[in-house]
Amino acid sequence: MTASALLDVKDVNKYYGDAHVLRDIDLQIQRGEFVALVGQSGGGKSTLLRLIAGLEDTTTGELRQDGHAISGLNPDSRVMFQNDRLLPWLTVKENLAFADKSKSADADADQLLQRVELTEFANAYPAALSGGQRQRVALARALMAKPELLLLDEPLGALDALTRRKMQDLILQLWTERKMTVVLVTHDVNEAVRMASRIFVVAEHEIVQTYENPTECPRSDEDIAPLAQKVLDTIVNN
Ligand SMILES: Nc1ncnc2c1ncn2[C@@H]1O[C@H](COP(=O)(O)OP(=O)(O)OP(=O)(O)O)[C@@H](O)[C@H]1O
Ligand SMILES: [Mg+2]
User: Fold this and answer.
1) Could you tell me what percent of the chain has a pLDDT over 70?
2) Which of 16, 124, 171, 184 has its CA 20 to 30 A from that of 84?
3) To test the ligand 1 pocket, which listed residue (13, 16, 204) has its Cβ within 8 A of the most ligand atoms?
């Protein structure tokens, strides 16, 4: 592991019963990096995020963050799940502040709700929100703990194109401001190439290809197109 690698995934395999859902996964993510995982449905992307978050154990192999083995819940990471998992009996703001006992929780929640443009829904219950609004609440909630490592599983899937673009920009702004490390799972190849400086293609439960994305953020559509095409070809051909 290089000195600055934040996350080191070494030779990880995961089985569910007889199903081999992650095969010999090796990857290192540097502190402050923004990387993306793309690939066909069922390939094991969410499973890998759950292992990084310490929500599940590997079958073989090891994950380390900051040099420490991840075992049990990883307190320095937060996941925004594919489904928003909001608590229906709490208001939007209560969902944000729920697990946060710090003095600044109230102010932090207000500030994040403003950033995701949901201030007016602070006292609403999740059932009264649209799918995209719920996703934005889930994003704000994941950011409450100021995680060192933010794991985003299809965070913007339910958003219209314009809101999606705005939320991509917001995530990039927060990544820069907070100097977080981000792992983004997305089915949108353009989104992966727009946001990440490295893209891992997962197919058949393995990482089959890694692409470096040397263009600097913010990336224009012209910057994105050539690499997005390569990534897409790799997904289609695996
Ligand atoms: N708790 C579980 N028990 C048994 N099998 C599981 C479990 N979770 C996931 N799997 C299986 O592991 C495989 C990988 O699932 P995973 O959710 O990681 O895929 P994914 O790449 O995130 O897919 P998608 O893009 O559709 O979200 C799938 O075949 C799935 O059925
Ligand atoms: Mg998934």
Assistant:
1) 98
2) 16
3) 16
The interaxial angle of helices 105-115 and 131-144, nearest 10 deg, is 140
For ligand 1, atom 26: residue with the closest CA: 41
Continuous segment of H or E residues that includes residue 181: strand 181-185
- The pLDDT score that the predictor gives to residue 4 is 67
Neighbour count for residue 43 (Cβ, 10 Å): 24
- Fold category of 1-76+148-238 in CATH: Rossmann fold (3.40.50)
> pLDDT band at 70, cuts 50/70/90?
very high
Query: Does the Cβ of 46 fall within 6 Å of ligand 1?
Result: yes
Residue 55 Cβ contacting ligand 1 at under 6 Å: no
Ligand 1 centre distance from Cα of residue 42 (Å)? 5
Domain definitions of the chain by residue range: 1-76+148-238, 78-146
Q: Tell me, what's the pLDDT at 158?
A: 82
Q: Is 147 helix (H, G, I), strand (E, B) or coil?
A: coil
Distance 153 CA to ligand 2 centre (A): 7
| Confidence check: pLDDT of 1 > 70 | no
Spatial contact of 159 and 80, defined as CB atoms under 8 Å apart: no
Q: Which atom of ligand 1 is nearest to the CA of 17?
A: 4
**Per-residue pLDDT reduced to its tens digit, 177-188:** 999 999 999 999
Alpha helices in 53-205 (DSSP H): 92-97, 105-115, 131-144, 161-178, 189-195
Q: Residue 47 Cα, ligand 1 centroid: separation in angstroms?
A: 6
Per-residue pLDDT, averaged over 213-229, amounts to 94
Q: Ligand 1: distance of its center to the CA of 236 in Å?
A: 19
